[in-house]
Every structure is written in C-alpha cells, then in structure tokens.
C-alpha cells in the first residue's frame, strides 16, 4: 500500500509555470510506475504523464514540450514541471501509483488544484 500527497498547485497567469510534487510512502516506490492525471470540471479524468521505474516517460499530446515528469526514488517523490501554462490546463491534478502487472495496486492522491487565468 502507498499513500500519495500532492502539493504545488495554485493560481498562475497564462504563460506561467508551476511545479507539482507528489510525496509517496511505502517501501516499493522505486518499482512503481508513477503518473499525473488531471480532471477539469465536467470532464473525465485524463492522463497527463507517466514515468516508469526505469525513468521512461510518456505524455499526452497536449502537454508534450511543455510539461516534464521526473522522480527521485531516494526521496520517494514525483514531480511535474509545467511550463507555458494555458487556461486549458486548469484542472485538479492527481498523483497515481501503479505496480506493473498488479492490477489492484492502483493508488491515488487527493489532488491539487491548478488554475490558469487568461
């Protein structure tokens, strides 16, 4: 089991940057695939970015070139650096942890709100 706590959200003007952080507990963090998802009002939760235990990354097309996901296994932290933010990025952002091959190992944080003003 793992607990996830996000931080770093807030209000930013269009074109600005934010860095989200996710602190994880547990002893298997280095083996986990970590991800950031977001959910805007009235929309379904969508994948933003993932990073595997080996550091391989994956991004949804709309954030490629603007967002960067990274991890620090020693600190059990995952980060999402978000640059060139636009109003379309406004959403609640959630940290997710999955253990590859173990379907039931799927944990979520409580989310952090990102609001981008135009």
Terminal-residue CA separation? 40 Å
How many helices in DSSP terms?
0
Q: Radius of gyration, Cα only, in angstroms?
A: 14 Å
* Uncertain ranges: none
Structural class: mainly beta
Instruction: Report the sheet with the most strands, covering strand number, pairing sense and barrel closure.
Output: 7 strands, mixed
- Give me the count of strands: 11
Q: Bin the strand percentage.
A: over 45%
Give the H and E element order. EEEEEEEEEEE
Dominant shape: globular
What is the overall pLDDT average?
Answer: 96
Helical content stands at: under 10%
Task: Provide an overview of this structure.
This protein is 0% helix and 55% strand. The chain is mainly beta. Strands 2, 4, 5, 6, 9, 10 and 11 form a seven-stranded mixed β-sheet that branches. A hairpin with a 5-residue loop joins strand 5 (46-51) and strand 6. The radius of gyration is 14 Å and the shape is globular. The mean pLDDT is 96.
């Amino acid at each position: 089991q793992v607990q996830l706590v996000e931080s770093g959200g807030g209000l930013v003007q269009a074109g600005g940057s934010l860095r989200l952080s996710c602190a994880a507990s547990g002893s298997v963090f280095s083996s986990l695939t970590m991800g950031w998802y977001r959910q805007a009002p009235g929309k379904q939760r969508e994948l933003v970015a993932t990073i595997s235990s080996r550091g391989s990354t994956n991004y949804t097309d709309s954030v490629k070139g603007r967002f960067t996901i990274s991890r620090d296994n020693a600190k059990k932290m995952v980060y999402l650096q978000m640059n060139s933010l636009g109003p379309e990025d406004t959403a609640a952002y959630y940290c997710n942890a999955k253990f590859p091959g173990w379907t039931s190992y799927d944990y979520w944080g409580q989310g952090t709100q990102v609001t981008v003003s135009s």
